């Protein structure tokens, strides 16, 4: 079997010529084997009708196997010649023939330097594309995070609006004024608590001296 890749022929036919020949080879062997089984069955049937026949089925099978081996050896020789003819005259594209999809290369020839420059440009564009994809993914992650933060802020604003409405319903003004009042009250309570703690400390010290 030929080891030539025959890439141009594969592009044209859609299959490798070697694969085609291999299938022909296997198909012929299978057909030969099946034919010999049919011949053997016919011979056994004919001999079964002959009285006092001295030829036994094992002898028939032995003869069948010998004949099959003889046929396979001759087929191998014939197939080698057939393979050579098919690869050269049938499944071969001459060197001077150009496929229609490759004619653009003939109309616009490209030197090795130009081809290398195009490859470098393609590689650079691929790197830029990967960088843009990575940036897009990072932006999508950031956008999702912003959506989460926005949702939390909206919940907080809704909470403040609810408190503002409660304050107005109870005549406490808006929530900002109420919050400022609560802050001042908290500071006053802290001061009072601090004074109480200091007085309590002084009273303890006085009791210890007594």
From TrEMBL:
<keyword id="KW-0175">Coiled coil</keyword>
<keyword id="KW-0498">Mitosis</keyword>
<feature type="coiled-coil region">
    <location>
        <begin position="108"/>
        <end position="209"/>
    </location>
</feature>
<dbReference type="GO" id="GO:0051301">
    <property type="term" value="P:cell division"/>
</dbReference>
<dbReference type="InterPro" id="IPR008685">
    <property type="entry name" value="Centromere_Mis12"/>
</dbReference>
<protein>
    <recommendedName>
        <fullName>Protein MIS12 homolog</fullName>
    </recommendedName>
</protein>
<keyword id="KW-0995">Kinetochore</keyword>
<comment type="similarity">
    <text>Belongs to the mis12 family.</text>
</comment>
<keyword id="KW-0158">Chromosome</keyword>
<dbReference type="GO" id="GO:0000070">
    <property type="term" value="P:mitotic sister chromatid segregation"/>
</dbReference>
<dbReference type="Pfam" id="PF05859">
    <property type="entry name" value="Mis12"/>
</dbReference>
<keyword id="KW-0137">Centromere</keyword>
<keyword id="KW-0132">Cell division</keyword>
<dbReference type="GO" id="GO:0000444">
    <property type="term" value="C:MIS12/MIND type complex"/>
</dbReference>
<dbReference type="GO" id="GO:0051382">
    <property type="term" value="P:kinetochore assembly"/>
</dbReference>
<dbReference type="GO" id="GO:0005634">
    <property type="term" value="C:nucleus"/>
</dbReference>
<keyword id="KW-0131">Cell cycle</keyword>
